């Protein structure tokens, strides 16, 4: 997606992460930005697959500003000073937006929300990181709840369906380019479409399985349906109905032991509760290598999924 936006004319910088076997056309992510976001997660004791909750304690943002604020502003200022439209991509923005919004000129902010079938997301993350399907589903759910929370007041935003771009490339890209032109006032010649379409090809989608609602929690089904409709009204209604509701894929983080448990979301009114324990062995979440044992260590982090 960022490659498409870059072809349209956005500045993505010159410090991009190189392509690899998992993304042969490149990630289009800025190395310095990614490194800073990762350092912030490390500082918070969080990860991309078990993200922080910055809005739970205002003092956290003040601490992050003191520790990382100047570096964040330097990244933004470097792009701003180049004098034309720029694009920054990092999935970690979803969970660190409360921090970054302090340094971005919000009226000029444009948000492109990319939605992908959670089935294919889970398969991709399992292949790349060994992330269990349950954890991937929990991450997908929390990601799109957080995205709406952070973007509901943003004026310029669009939802783009990743799977539709693969299946109906010309139509989807035209919609995106028309949006960018209307918001920025930067009209492009028609030939730009012929340059962009070759960027998108079927091999970019390693998995193309249908979404089966019966395999997912009601919240994921409602969120995915609303996102596919590309209607922020429907998306917002799904968010408002479910932002305080617990569902089957809720992820719990257990630190140290039960008595000192820090739970991301309060668990209430569960029937026939089943919990599956995964321990981060330092090799990523490979379910086959995960070890089941009592929660007693002060040195390990444990992860539960609720079924």
Helix content class: 40-55%
Rg, nearest Å: 20 Å
Strand content: 5-15%
Strand order of the biggest β-sheet? 3-5-4
Poorly predicted runs are: 246-307
Instruction: Determine the mean pLDDT.
Output: 75
Categorize the overall geometry.
globular
Record field, number of beta strands: 5
Order of helices and strands: HHHHEHHEHHHHHEEE
Structural class: mainly alpha
Terminal CA distance? 33 Å
Tally of discrete structural domains: 1
Q: Biggest β-sheet, characterized?
A: 3 strands, antiparallel
Number of helices: 11
Short description:
The protein is mainly alpha-helical. It has helices at residues 2-8, 31-44, 58-80, 93-100, 118-129, 133-151, 162-167, 169-184, 191-196, 218-228, 232-242; strands spanning 110-115, 156-161, 251-255, 275-279, 301-306.
How would you describe this structure in keywords?
307 residues; two-stranded parallel sheet; 5 strands; 43% helix; globular
What features would you describe in this structure?
The protein has 307 residues and is mainly alpha-helical. The two termini are 33 Å apart. Helices cover 43% and strands 9% of the residues. It has eleven helices and five strands; from the N terminus they run ααααβααβαααααβββ. It has helices spanning 2-8, 31-44, 58-80, 93-100, 118-129, 133-151, 162-167, 169-184, 191-196, 218-228, 232-242; strands at residues 110-115, 156-161, 251-255, 275-279, 301-306. The protein has one domain (2-246).
